[in-house]
Amino acid sequence: MTDYLDLNRANWDDRAVAHTASPDYQVSRFADDPQFLSEVVRFDQPRLGDVAGLRGVHLQCHIGTDTLSLARLGATMTGLDFSGASLASARSLAASAGAAVDFVESDVYSARSALTGEFDLVYTGIGALCWLPDIKRWARTVASLLAPGGRLFVREGHPVLWSLDYERTDGLLSITEPYFETTEPQVYDEASTYVATEHVFTHTVTHEWNHGIGEIVTAVLEAGLVLTGLEEHQSVPWNAITGRMQHIGDGEYQLTDRPARLPHSYTLQATRPAV
């Protein structure tokens, strides 16, 4: 099998350029408005609660808009990502906003050796877990990063959403991709991305994996964490099914026809026991 890290890293290096320039990421707003937060973190805020004073790490932080937003809420943040191009944009973003955010280049599974100390908050955002082949290894990594009493916070696209046939035009929701984790990846070749851009991509092939909700919860529990919340949502922060979703405000999209049929995304929270 082609090394998925090299393949996917090249794709995300390519995306970093497009995403930084895209109006959808609103990069310029962070420098212009010291109170501005990403739409993703604004959605998360009621569930995150007060993060002021917490030492946090954002795994798979990409260009850092959510990482910076968490720092603006008072957390001392570190962002970790395997894409050097993404981190270059993230560091530029933080500098333009005058924020003291550290960024570390590493793949997720190497995070424990790449980072120093333990964290009160491990944050993982939308579109992250599908790039990882082994959800149990991810959960063990998260557990190794958390301080006693520390919290994992994940908002992610729902595995049912990831498993749909996006090419259908008859209005039906059809599951054609794996819902459960598989040994071999799903291989995609797509010359576009999820934001508005005119960028021409040169690295278009990716290797991805789905993970069922039960697999994710089990992995978290087996890693020694205590599940404290699992909430499914009827919206997702990107236009996941082109032509079949409507923007409902605050960067969230929802299936236009009978959205209650589909779990769009979910929030999972868990803690490391204090003793």
Automatic annotation (TrEMBL):
Alphabetical list of InterPro entries matching this protein: Methyltransf_12, SAM-dependent_MTases_sf
Annotated Methyltransferase type domain residues: 58-152
SUPFAM superfamilies, A to Z: S-adenosyl-L-methionine-dependent methyltransferases
Alphabetized GO MF terms: methyltransferase activity
Any one of the GO BP annotations: methylation
Pfam families assigned: Methyltransf_12 (PF08242)
Keywords assigned by UniProt, alphabetized: Methyltransferase, Transferase
Protein's name in the database: Methyltransferase domain-containing protein
Taxonomic lineage: Bacteria, Bacillati, Actinomycetota, Actinomycetes, Micromonosporales
